[in-house]
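Why do we care about 3D structure at all? Because function follows from shape, and shape follows, mostly, from sequence. That is the central idea of this module. The next example makes it concrete: a single protein chain, its amino acid sequence, and then its structure expressed as tokens.
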Amino acid sequence: MPDSPAAPVPRDPLADLIACPRCDAVQREVEPAPGQRAVCLRCDHVLIAPRKSAGKQIIAVCLAVLILAVTATSLPFLRISRAGLAHASSILDAALAFSSSPLFAALSLLLAALIVFIPALRAVLSIYVLLPLVRDRAPFPGAIQAFRLSEALRPWSMAEVFAIGCAVALIKVTDLARVEFGAAFWIFALLVILVPVQDGLTCRHSVWKSLDREVRR
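And the structure:
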């Protein structure tokens, strides 16, 4: 009996569609070359922006964010002196300033999380997701959930908001007392710069596509 040809696997007609996260416009996916961008036809939002060796660059930035976050919490942030009296405080001291009151303890913990813990957690999650991908290996268990959590926490990473608040407060305090910047101030300033760099280097579409490809193997 002659061999019969295998039936072709039906192609999913929705596989090459992509929805814009800003305006929800659905359009055909066009994979750009590294260094180029694919933007939404309606609102010009960047949908795909692959970069050559971006995974290694993101891991390097995440390691720097993690080191800076840990270091910034252990060193003096500001030192305020007036009339012979001086007081130095760290970032955690500022975040937990209201922890003495049970009513505001939860607020203090939330503030500390928004300033330091969430950026550090997102850095750890990104390294966990990208490390096997850049080495052409299967993702670690739970990589999809880890990247989904990292994306869900992205709007809550507010280190730059704390920096703006400090700048406004310092303008008022400098008229009343002498303010000296500690080592943690400059470390935190660098951290505020690196967090947007991490997000800017990450092409979420490329990461999701790589995870999906590796899982299907």
